[in-house]
Fold this protein.
Amino acid sequence: MFLAWNEIVKNKLRFTLITGVLLLVAYLVFFLSGLATGLKNLNREAVDNWKADAVVLTDESDKSLYQSSLTLDQAKEVKADKKAVLGQMSAIANNGKKKTNVSLFGIRPEEFLMPSISEGNPFGEENEVVADASLKEDGFKVGDELSISSTDIKLKITGFMEASRFNASPVLYMDLDTLNRVKYGEAVEANKDRINAVIIRGEQQEIADDSLEVIETETFIKNLPGYTEQNLTLTFMIYFLFIISSVIVAIFLYVLTVQKISMFGVMKAQGISSFYLSRSVIAQTFLLAFVGVAIGLVLTLVTGAFLPAAVPVSFDIPTMLVYGAVLVVVAIAGAVFSVLTIVRIDPLKAIGG
Amino acid sequence: MTVLELQQVKKTFGSGRTQVDALKETDFQANEKELIAIIGPSGSGKSTFLTIVGGLLSPSSGEVILNGQPISNMNERERSQIRLREIGFVLQASNLVPFLTVDKQMKLLDQVKKGNMDNAELEQLYEDLGIGELRKKYPADLSGGERQRVAIAKALYTNPSIILADEPTASLDSDRAYEVMELLKHETKSKGTTTIVVTHDIRLTDYCDKVYKMTDGVLTLEGNENR
C-alpha cells in the first residue's frame, strides 16, 4: 500500500481521472440497478402485498391472469390453508381532469386480499374503490368519481393504499360484484360468478379440477407481460457494465504499468520482488475502485432523492452493495494484466544489460 | 577478507555460428573496502560481468561466490533475496522511484527488507553524502549529481556487502563525476563495503584501488593499490 498510496498522492490528477471513470461506471450501474428494482416493483408490488404462496389459474390461460377465467364453483374445489378469489380487468380511469391506465381488482372484503388503507376508508358500498397512492400524484383524491372506459358505471374513491401497482398500472380494489358489473355490463347476470384467479396462502391440497393450474407466486410474476424481458434487459446492461469497467481498468492500469516498466525493472534488480510490486498494483486498484464505487453510490442516492416520482427508481441497498463489491472485484480482475506484465519484466533489460 | 569470487566464470550467448563469448573464462576476487574499476569499450563484456556478479544473469559455466555462498545456480527468488540483502546498485540513469521523496526512497526499502540502518545511521549517511536538505524532495526536483548521491545513499542504506555501479557518472559533468567517485571511495572505506564501478571514463580510475580492463570478454588486471 505504501508504494500505491504515494504514487496516488504524487499523481493526483492522473488517479483522479481513473477514479472518475470508475465513479461514472459505478453511478451508471447503481442507477440501472435502481431502475431495474423500480420497474420490478412497478409490476409486482400489488402481488407482493398479497403475501401469497401460489395463484390458481385456468390451465389454458398459459399462466396469464388476464386470460384466466373460472367460476366461483371451481374456486370452491381449491383446498388451501387460506384462499381468496380475484377478478381482474384493465381499464382507463378518468376523474374529469386526468385519464390513466388502471388495473381493477375485484375481491371479497372478508378475504385476505383486502388491502390496508393508508388514507381514507376501505370500500364498503357498491361502486366504491380504494386506489393505489401513486394516483394521488396525478391529482386523484378521496371522493373522486371515476369514469371507467367501456362502462357508464362511476366508481368512487374512498381511500388510498400504499405500493399497489400491478403490471405497471395503479390498482383499484373493489368488491367482486362491482368489478363484474363494470366488466360484463348487461351480461353480468350470466357472468356474476366469474373470477380470474384464486390466490392461496399456505399449503394447498390436491386440486381435482384438471382445468386449473397452481402456479407459485414468483412464477406467476415472471409470466407477467414484459416483466422477464424487461428485467433481463436491465440485468444484461448491468453485467455488460461490469465487463466494461473491468476492461477500462485493465487498459488504464496496463498503460500505467507499461510506462513504469523501467522503474519496476530497476526495483526488481534491487531485489524488490514481483509479489511486492504486484500487491502494490492490486492495492492501488482496490483503493481507486473502492473510492470510485463509494462516491458513485452516494451520488446515486443523492440523485435519487431529487428525481420526480414519475421515474420508476427504487434503490435496494443490499443489491447495490453487492453490485459495488462486484465492481471492485472486476476492477481488481482488470489489474491482472498489469500483474502479469510486472512478473514478466526482466530486471536485466531495465538496467541495460 | 574476500567478499566476491568468480571461478572460471564464462558467459556465452547464442550457439553454433552465431555463438558469442561475451565473457571468457574469468577468475576474479574482490575484497572488503576495495574500490575496483572495470574499464573497457562498449560491447567488451563489462555489463555482462556486472550483471553476472549482481545475480541478474546466470553464467554459462563457472561459479560466482558472494560472501562464501555460491549464487550461480540459485533460482530467481533466491537471487532476488541476495540482491536485496547483499548488493546495492547504482546505475547510469538514477535508480530512484519518481513518485517518492528522498526520505521515502529509504522507507520503501524498509517495507521490503528489515534490518536496514537506524535513524542515527541514516542521518549520518545523509550528512556524509550531503543530501540532508533534499529529504523532502522528489527525484525530478534534484540535479543529476544530487540524484546520483541519493542513489548511492539508497544503495548503502540496506548495508550491502557489495555495491555495483554501472557507469554512475555517465550523465554528470566532470566536477560532479569526481564528486560521486569521491563519495563512493569514502563510503567504501568507511562502511567496509566492496565497490565495483564499471566505466569507460579512464579519469575515474584514479580513485580506485584496482583497475581491470575488459577486452572482448577477457578481464585483465591493469593496476592495483600501488597505483
